[in-house]
Amino acid sequence: MPKLETIDKLAILADAAKYDASCASSGAGGRTSRGGRGVGATDGAGICHAYTPDGRCVSLLKILMTNYCMFDCAYCVNRISSNVRRARFTVEEVVALTLDFYKRNYIEGLFLSSGIIRSPDYTMGELVRIAQRLRCDHDFRGYIHLKTIPDADPALLDEAGLYADRLSINIELANADALSQLAPEKSLPAIRKSMGRLRLKIEDAKGERAKSRKAPRYAPSGQSTQMIVGADSARDIDIVGTSALLYANYSLKRVYYSAFSPIPDSSAALPLKAPPLMREHRLYQADWLLRYYGFTVDEIATGAQGGMLDLALDPKTTWALANRALFPVDVNRAPYEMLIRIPGLGVRAAQRIVATRRFHRLRLADLSRLTTSIRKMTPFICAADWRPGALTDEADLAARLKPPARQLDLFAV
Ligand code: SF4
């Protein structure tokens, strides 16, 4: 095989990393010249943006160390039986690329994953060596997110957390049977065991740091995971239920949902079409309801047809329509916990309402200054000068809240 240039490896291994949703990807565009190789060009070079726990947006070099893999997960384009162009970075190449991009101010950190070569231990060892060299040999202070391999020696996972800000282990599918059918080399109990171990390590390190600032940091941005949506028969409610358990049992910072993309020469066990992207979006909305709005899985399931979230309406609105007796909510009196259940009202706007109503009774005009989704809220609220009256028939309201079907472009061919 001809020797690949670093830029060719980068093109292959950044493209191979795009299926990982664990840091939201949005390539920087608009500055590309000479086929993506001009000065300052970042297209195709695997630069994506992610959000840190304090809300800052950071650009990351998102790559695989290699897309060779000895495993044969049916849903993965990098599986051993897949006919894709392969490449592999050495430890030194990843370190040099990261430092180079960092010094040029293209990136603020590294998101590194890998196919499995030789053995889980060997691969994890190489990933740890990259992070260790960046931190210890080059004093790299940027963000590092390492995707870990659950079957690797626990000592390697322990070491990874000393250098990485965030560690993640992909759970892949909500259903254990589907996982053993589509990814026979992976095991849900092994994944969960590694997540449990990470949780303990992270909590222990936090406890030690609370006692002494000299105690070593361990994955200070916590752990996350990813689930593929639409590759198996798992319903949305199964996926949301799995996420709720993962958050509760392993203190995950995030569960990412990645809509399955059909891949060339795929197994007959996989669907031929990708699920609608809106499904992924609805799952993220349900996930936020779990984490920030106090909803339970059963409440999110209210109104879900056959266990699937409504694609036309967001899950909070679906729940509100199924619980019309709880509305309208008086924005001048309702507790915060009820305010955040009003469709269209976010956490920050609800906090502003609570702070403002201490001084005067809120009218519709006041609310429109505090939130941008007043039109969506009005059927569900009372204010000093507003009652929704008879506008609350459930079927009619659902029809009015659904976004209009997109008009066909008459000039499209
Ligand atoms: S182990 Fe990872 S890279 Fe390898 S086939 Fe499975 S999902 Fe793909």
Account of the 3D structure:
- Helix 2 (91-103) packs parallel to helix 3 and helix 4 crosses helix 6.
- The longest helix is centred in the middle third of the chain and has 24 residues, at 188-211.
- The chain is globular, with a radius of gyration of 24 Å.
- Helix 7 links the parallel strand 6 and strand 7.
- The strands form 2 sheets. A 7-stranded mixed β-sheet has the order 1-2-3-4-5-6-7.
- The protein is built from 15 helices and 9 strands.
- It has 413 residues and is an alpha/beta fold.
- The protein folds into 2 domains: 6-275, TIM Barrel, CATH 3.20.20; 315-401, no CATH class.
- The protein has helices spanning 6-16, 91-103, 120-137, 154-163, 176-182, 188-211, 236-250, 277-292, 297-301, 315-322, 336-339, 347-356, 364-370, 374-377, 394-401; strands at 47-51, 57-64, 109-113, 143-147, 166-168, 223-229, 254-259, 329-330, 381-382.
- The chain binds iron/sulfur cluster (SF4).
Describe the structure using short key phrases.
413 residues; alpha/beta; TIM Barrel; 7-stranded mixed β-sheet; 9 strands; 10% strand; disordered C terminus; binds iron/sulfur cluster
Order of helices and strands: HEEHEHEHEHHEHEHHHEHHHHEH
- Tell me which CATH architecture of the largest domain applies here: Alpha-Beta Barrel
Question: Total number of β-strand segments?
Answer: 9
Radius of gyration: 24 Å
Tell me, what's the shape? globular
